[in-house]
Structure formats: C-alpha cells, structure tokens
Amino acid sequence: MTEQPMVRFENVSKRYGTLTVLDGLDLEIKRGEKVSVIGPSGSGKTTVLRMLMTLETINDGVIWVEGEPLTHMQRNGKLVPADINHIRKIRAKIGMVFQSFNLFPHMTAMANCIEAPITVLGMKRADAEARAADLLEMVGLGQKKGHYPSQLSGGQQQRVAIARALAMRPKIMLFDEVTSALDPELVGEVLEVIRKLGREHDLTMLMVTHQMGFAKEFSDRVCFFHAGKICEQGPPKELFGAPKNERTQQFLRAVLEAG
Ligand SMILES: Nc1ncnc2c1ncn2[C@@H]1O[C@H](COP(=O)(O)OP(=O)(O)O)[C@@H](O)[C@H]1O
Ligand SMILES: [Mg+2]
To answer: Which Pfam families match (predicted)?
Structure first.
C-alpha cells in the first residue's frame, strides 16, 4: 500500500470575480517531503498556501490533508461542509510564515510564541514557556526572549515567526517568500534556520521562494507555477539543470540575469 499523501490538491480552482487564479491544480506532497514553489509574480503561489492555511475559500476541487478534506467532513456516511471545529482541527496541523513577519508588535518574542499554545491548545503557561524557550534557542534567539519586535532586526523577527509557528507543533510548515522583505545580509540566517528544521524535524515543508540556490540545494522537488497551474515540476537538479518547458527556461533565465 502506498502511504497516504500529507497534502493533496485535487483539481482545485480559485477565482476572484472573472480572474481565474488557480485553474484545476493537482499537487501531492508526501509526508516529510520538502517542496519549493517558484514562478512569476501573480501566478497563484501565495493563493495556494493561503488556501491550505484556510485563509482563502476554494471555488472547485478538494484539498486533502492526511486523507481528510479541508472543507468537508464525514457525517453519517455523507460528506457535508466542514464546521469550524473540523477546520480548526485540520489547521492545527499547519504552520505558516509570511513575507512580512506578522509578529504581534506589543508582545515580546516569548509572548509571541506562547500566546496561541495557551489560548488555542490550552497549554499551561509554564509548559508553553519552556517549549518557547527551547524553540527560541533553536532559532538562535535564546538571548532575545524579552525583546519586542521593534528591538529586533528583520532576520531576527522572521526567526521568532518561525519559532512561533513551530510552537503549535505543526506537521506541515508553509513559507511564503520569507526572506523577500529582508536586507540581503540577513537572508542567510533565516535560510540556515529553515535548513536546520529540514534536517532535524520530521516536517513536511512547502516553500514559495525566489532563492533559487536554496531551492536547488534544499528541496526534494521544485514546482514551477505559471498562470495558476504547475507548468513543470521535478527534482531540483533536473528542473534547474535541464528545464524542459520553454516558460520555465525563460523564467530561470530572467531570474539568473537579475540575480
Ligand atoms: N483578495 C484578492 N482579490 C482579488 N485578486 C486577488 C486577491 N488575492 C490575489 N489576487 C490576484 O490573484 C493572482 C495571484 O495572486 P498570488 O497568489 O498572490 O500570486 P503570487 O504569490 O504568485 O505572486 C494575482 O493576479 C493577484 O492580483
Ligand atoms: Mg506571493
């Protein structure tokens, strides 16, 4: 028996009015797999992550997480629209880190990392603090627990955001261009944390990125998005080394010339 995919997009479409953003997307991600998503601006990359995070509705198709549909649930043998508890249960499996950090500005690094574990998971404060301290240590910020976001660099804020997402014990981590808002000299420290996560944790990771070098070295598979579809996908060596599709070739040429 083949193992159930961790995530599966089945013929998923998303429209805003007359604009079709995703057009019958099929995508499967295995447990523990590290998948990078690349592609031009506006091709639907962020929308894919936001739908999986249940921040966007789906027009057509089904997203499955460990075999359960995100938007539907079984009741008396029938599939009915999901209620809030079902959505919360599935969403608890997923953590997301955004381009713009999105930390709570009035809370310290520690407070950012314990808020949801206490209010959503019902953890005891002492337990939540112990776990947050470990995670902040893991991202190299053991000395900055009491700092507010405004007292931290962009790279440090992004590392707090990663610790905060991990504090909810997700099985799946989503990263949306998490280094794009950073000064170039701060990019490396954030990528290093992601590298470490990939090595030391049994996480499934889906990452939208413009860091082609990182995508090449880190991912099991790279998907090139174009106009709401996966135009080409494959192991990074193949996709970067010998792209088959003309659109992929054009995109990679343009990115390499710019960078
Ligand atoms: N809330 C929204 N309302 C209308 N259009 C949107 C909305 N969010 C995204 N879009 C449009 O959907 C398309 C895909 O957006 P997005 O997923 O953010 O692309 P990417 O992350 O690949 O740059 C873009 O054309 C964008 O303008
Ligand atoms: Mg985007």
So the answer is: ABC_tran (PF00005)
